[in-house]
Amino acid sequence: MKSKEDYPTQTHHRLNGLRLLLLAILVGSLVALAGQALLHLIHGIAALVFQPPSGSWVWLLAPVAGAALIGLISRLAKVDVSGHGIPEAMQGVIANQSRIRLKTAILKPLCTAICIGTGGPFGVEGPIIATGGAVGSLLGQCIPHSPAQRKILLGAGAAAGMTAMFGTPLAGVLLAVELLLFEFRARSLLPVSMAAATAMFMRGLTHEPFPMLPVSFPMAPDPLIGFASLLVGGVSGLVAVGMTEALHGLESLYEKLPFSNMGRLLLGGLSVGLIGWIDPRTLGPGYANMQNMLHTEIAATALGTLMVLKFASWSLSLASGTAGGTLAPVMTVGGAMGSLAGLAIQHIPGFESLPIGLMALVGMASVFAGMSRALLASVAFAFEATQSSGTFGPLLLGCAIAICVSRLLMRHSIMTEKMAKQGIHVPEAMQPDILEYLLVKDVMNAKPVTLLESAQLDETIQACSDQHSDSYWQKTRLIPIVDEDNRLKAILTRNEILSMLRSGSSGKGIKALHVANPAVISIHNDSTLAQAADLMLLHDVAQLPVITNDGRKTLLGVISRKELLQARQITQQHEFPQPGILAALRQSK
Predict the structure, then answer these.
(1) Judging by beta carbons within 10 Å of its beta carbon (0-12, 13-18, 19+), is residue 71 exposed, middle or buried?
(2) Do residues 488 and 551 touch, judged by C-beta distance below 8 A?
(3) C-alpha to C-alpha distances, 336 to 76, 108, 225, 434, nearest whole angstrom
(4) Which residues, in sequence order, are CB contacts of 490 under 8 Å at separation 6+?
């Protein structure tokens, strides 16, 4: 007689978990090295292109040359390197069973380095997240893994990539959870955390600056700062919607132009060059611009110019099909907007001492949150990048309001719009699987039809015949055979009864136990519905006898697919509103 112990055991799962942890450490180490190589490549290209005494003509032509080289690589290698990294990693998880091609893993960061090194207005975070995810995915493809385990390794690589770049391990883990894994449980959190922590330690060996944007806001959060954060968050949500819609509109416009992919890339590079010639602050990632906004008060005209031109450079270039990350340009635009909003709020009586740098930080995080809808990752990144604990409250308020506005005005985020157009569904929430925490005993049929092992089959066959056997057995696919102490001995299946009916047998003189199947697939009453569903799928059965977990195998009931569906009904019932206390009091009167 078989039970759930005869199938994948907890020990087997623990060994798999240990293997994932060890591989996650390896992924974190490899991605940290890849991140450092990418940074050195970017700095090397930038030093070569913009070395003194380069004039303003270099600002104009370098982005065009970079775009031409990216187009040439894409054409010769026949690989699509466009996009800002995170959506491509998400699509790999959702649509490709967490598989990312080796060619993409190598060429996308190379093209990103060329783009940023020649003045592209992007950050390195998106491509290194995609590269880190590719490292995890490729490792999961080389060593036999399930798609679920490969997804965890991909998420581990993405978290390690973000950590290697910015020294923000918590933000890296949360970004992987919110945008790639769509689950919040130990089997995925532990490997992803190990990879991020490993990348953080590896980063320390290279003496990268930590924190990335050091700043201190000594003023304790108070209601005035909270109110200002709400205002900045609301405006950030509107800006996030506007930036996303404008980018998608430009992408559609580029597709309508009578140009090849190379022509679009050159047009995007020329746009970056022209805008950079007007305002060199728009070239490159712009981390220095963010530092200045956090530490010094910049004139409103300079902030407005930077915000508009940086957005124009980023959107025109990204829409043309080049490669580059969105976090740095989006935070630059958000920081300028937050500073402008803070300057405007200072004119309200009582807000004269409002810290503009704090409003700039809230704007940076809130605009990114509104565009990506990654609330926790946005807050964690802004905190870890500044190491200023007083920012938590304002950041939470601003990012939450920005996401509310974004959800009200925009159906899909910048991360999911392309996949939605391709008909790929992206999960919007991390909900617990109700099958994981409801037990079999909560929903089983506790009064099943049973037969004693000494019973003859003639009465059972007659009952089936009288009750139109086919429709009767749609509900009862098995009858447990038990002894006098109600201990499970065997099962009599629907097919066995129908076979006897078709052969014309009356069943008289035939004991149920003689024709029953002694190889019983059963489940314990304290097992979860998820375990019951797994057994049903594994053995292609519709019902399972439920027995005690004390070794006696006493029959307690039967569980079928119908009961599993009833669990879903419980979830739906939790969503229906219930009458409040006042309504109950009125009814009692």
Answers:
(1) buried
(2) no
(3) 40, 29, 18, 44
(4) 453, 480, 481, 513, 516, 517, 518, 520
Q: Same CATH fold, 434-573 and 223-421?
A: no
CATH number assigned to the domain covering 14-205: 1.10.3080.10
Of 169-183, 187-201, 211-225, least confident by mean pLDDT is 211-225
Amino acid at 517: N
> Any idea where the domains of the chain sit in the sequence?
14-205, 223-421, 434-573
- Can you tell me the distance from the alpha carbon of 533 to that of 535, in angstroms, rounded to the nearest whole number? 5
Query: Three-state SS for 480?
Result: strand
| Higher local confidence (pLDDT), 296 or 394 | 394
Look at residues 253, 227, 197, 244 and name the one whose alpha carbon lies nearest to residue 28: 197
Spatial distance between the Cα atoms of 323 and 129, rounded to a whole number of angstroms:
13
Which range, of 53-67, 280-294, 535-549, averages the lowest pLDDT? 53-67
Among residues 305, 318, 334, the alpha carbon closest in space to that of 116 is found at: 318
Q: From the CB of residue 45, how many other CB atoms can be counted at a distance below 10 Å?
A: 19
Helix (H, G, I), strand (E, B) or coil at 123: strand
CA-nearest of 31, 33, 38 to 137 is 31
Question: Which residues sit opposite 557 in a β-bridge?
Answer: 546
Q: Output DSSP code: residue 180.
A: I
Q: What is the rounded CA–CA span in Å between residue 364 and residue 166? A: 15
Q: How far apart are CA 260 and CA 268, in angstroms?
A: 12
Helix residue ranges per DSSP H, 348-447: 356-372, 375-386, 392-409, 417-421, 434-437, 440-443
**CATH fit for domain 223-421, picks 3.50.50.60, 3.40.50.12780, 3.40.50.1460, 1.10.3080.10:** 1.10.3080.10
How many H helices and E strands in the chain?
26, 6
Kindly report the backbone phi and psi dihedral angles of residue 388, in degrees, each rounded to the nearest multiple of 5, phi listed first.
-115, 105
Amino acid at site 305: T
Q: What is the mean pLDDT of residues 131-146?
A: 70
Structure tokens at 31: 């991605």
**241 neighbors 370 (Cβ within 8 angstroms):** yes
Task: Show Cβ contacts of residue 453 under 8 Å, excluding neighbours closer than 6 positions.
Answer: 481, 482, 483, 489, 490, 511, 512, 513
Kindly report whether the global pTM for this prediction surpasses the value 0.90.
Answer: no
Q: Are 156 and 27 in contact (CB under 8 A)?
A: yes
| CA distances for 341 relative to 181, 193, 216, 290, 302, angstroms | 35, 36, 20, 16, 14
Task: Classify domain 434-573 at the CATH topology level.
Answer: CBS-domain (3.10.580)
Give the tens place of pLDDT for each residue, 27-49: 888 888 888 888 888 888 888 88
Q: Which two tokens stand for residue 570?
A: 């419980």
In our burial notation (b when 16+ CB lie closer than 10 A, e otherwise), range 352-366 reads: eebbbbbbbbbbbbb
Query: Residue 118 in contact with residue 62, Cβ under 8 Å?
Result: yes
Tokens for 340, please give them.
Answer: 């402008």
CA distance 398 to 438: 37
The residue whose two tokens read 């019932």 is: 573
Interatomic CA distance for residues 552 and 3, integer angstroms: 13
By residue count, the chain amounts to: 589
